[in-house]
Amino acid sequence: MRVNEHTKLLGQRVILVPYEARHVPKYHQWMSSPTLRSLTASDELTLDEEYAMQQSWRQDNDKLTFIVLCAEIYEKTNDEITAMVGDTNLFVRHDEESQHYVAEAEIMIAAPEARGKGFGREAMLLMFKYAQQHLPLNKFEAKIDMDNAMSLRLFESFQFAEVRRVEVFHEVTLERLITDDWLSWLDEQVQLRIEKYDDASK
């Protein structure tokens, strides 16, 4: 999705930047982990396929993605690759039955040393806030592996509610309607700062 190609989101702990071709080798290295692929329900791709996927994320109108940077490391190094810790994504679709625009949310903190520091929570909150301001959304949802207790707790903390379990896929679906009350709660959780992103800068 091109809506965010010149957009940088700044929080306290993390910075979100568009997924660029220069990020692909480190991302590909992360996804060589069978554990990460299992937790994220991802297929193993070649490096060339990973570059093609990055272009798909950039160009397709139903996908929105940011790379998650550790703000502290980035401030020290001014190097996005060194500061990369994960990514956050939305898959947007129109539900014909409800006539709602729904965004399926994903968050991955891939770097083991970056987990348990609140990076995933802040990154997802920033994504929620940005997306509801810039896309015509009615609802967020998340599809999470039944064994991924950390992600299940995280989305429950976002006031998502479980709506179904599919044993054959070992998957739990949680949903959150975008209401005025929830947006007020979101405003209390995170402060979003937006800056122009220069894709040639790092």
Roughly what fraction of the amino acids lie in strands? 25-35%
Name the helix and strand elements from N-terminus to C-terminus, one letter apiece: EEHHHEHHEEHEHEEHE
Beginning-to-end CA distance, first to last residue? 21 Å
Helix count equals 8
Q: How many distinct beta strands?
A: 9
SS class: alpha+beta
**What oligomerization state is this entry in?**
single chain
Q: Identify the overall geometry.
A: globular
| Model regions low in confidence, pLDDT < 50 over at least 5 residues | none
Please characterize this protein's 3D structure.
By secondary structure, this protein is of the alpha+beta class. Helix content is 36%, strand content 31%. The protein has eight helices and nine strands. The chain has helices at residues 24-30, 34-40, 47-59, 71-77, 80-83, 119-134, 149-157, 180-189; strands at residues 7-10, 14-18, 63-70, 84-95, 100-109, 139-145, 161-166, 171-177, 193-196. The protein has a nine-stranded mixed β-sheet, sandwiched between helices. Helix 1 crosses helix 3. The chain is globular and about 45 Å long.
Give the gist of this structure.
The chain is α+β, with helices and mostly antiparallel strands and 202 residues long. Helix content is 36%, strand content 31%. The protein has helices at 24-30, 34-40, 47-59, 71-77, 80-83, 119-134, 149-157, 180-189, and strands at residues 7-10, 14-18, 63-70, 84-95, 100-109, 139-145, 161-166, 171-177, 193-196.
Give the arrangement of secondary structure elements:
Blueprint: E1 7-10, E2 14-18, H1 24-30, H2 34-40, H3 47-59, E3 63-70, H4 71-77, H5 80-83, E4 84-95, E5 100-109, H6 119-134, E6 139-145, H7 149-157, E7 161-166, E8 171-177, H8 180-189, E9 193-196
Parallel strand pairs: 5-6
Antiparallel strand pairs: 1-2, 1-9, 2-3, 3-4, 4-5, 6-8, 7-8
Helix pairs in contact: 1-3
